Amino acid sequence: xxxxxxxxxxxxxxxxxxxxxxxxxxxxxxxxxxxxxxxxxxxxxxxxxxxxxxxxxxxxxxxxxxxxxxxxxxxxxxxxxxxxxxxxxxxxxxxxxxxxxxxxxxxxxxxxxxxxxxxxxxxxxxxxxxxxxxxxxxxxxxxxxxxxxxxxxxxxxxxxxxxxxxxxxxxxxxxxxxxxxxxxxxxxxxxxxxxxxxxxxxxxxxxxxxxxxxxxxxxxxxxxxxxxxxxxxxxxxxxxxxxxxxxxxx
Length: 250
What we know:
Low-confidence stretches: none
CATH superfamily of the domain at 5-174: 2-enoyl-CoA Hydratase, Chain A, domain 1
CATH class of the domain at 5-174: Alpha Beta
Radius of gyration: 17 Å
Number of strands: 9
Shape: globular
Mean pLDDT: 95
Order of helices and strands: EEHEHEEHEEHHEHEHHHH
Largest sheet: 6 strands, mixed
Distance between the termini: 42 Å
Helix content: 40-55%
CATH topology of the domain at 5-174: 2-enoyl-CoA Hydratase, Chain A, domain 1
CATH architecture of the domain at 5-174: Alpha-Beta Complex
Structural class: alpha/beta
Strand content: 5-15%
């Protein structure tokens, strides 16, 4: 594992995969690859039946690291597809913020457990950028097409209760019980026949890996175009300065 991801068994059948880039757990291609490697290691180990994806620090994942080159211009989305192709069910424990690409990471899991203090936002348009990480596929699957359009167009931020009301998270618990509740759900899954769970998951997910592969190819192309615009630079500046953006359409 890299410095950014650790694996910790919590029982014979459930393991934690923890992001360890606190406080915000911004990701790059290396971090997403490490998550996918962890999933693969647990899948091939034989005893693990369910995974809890969690994070160290204030936020679950505040999105991509925009400090350097365009994160979509590289192997990032190839590794993202690997998350969706993994064989084991995943429960995400979402503390703090799951924002932008971080929301995409949370949506790669089968289930999301949150607290009232959790925050969810598909804030891409507020940054002047196209959605990524397969969110154009996974968000409509979670909340429906029309609600997904609203979230993507406005970038509105939802707390845990609002996310639970629209199906963006599956269970809502007190913040101090978040990891415990996610592990409990994973243990519920792990009690079932692993062969049956895998078969059901393959059926229910269908061709999701190929859908994500096609979606991320489109998303990356659009992101690359918008990454060079004045609007994107303004969106990042506004977010850094914590002020409303003043977009020019250029």
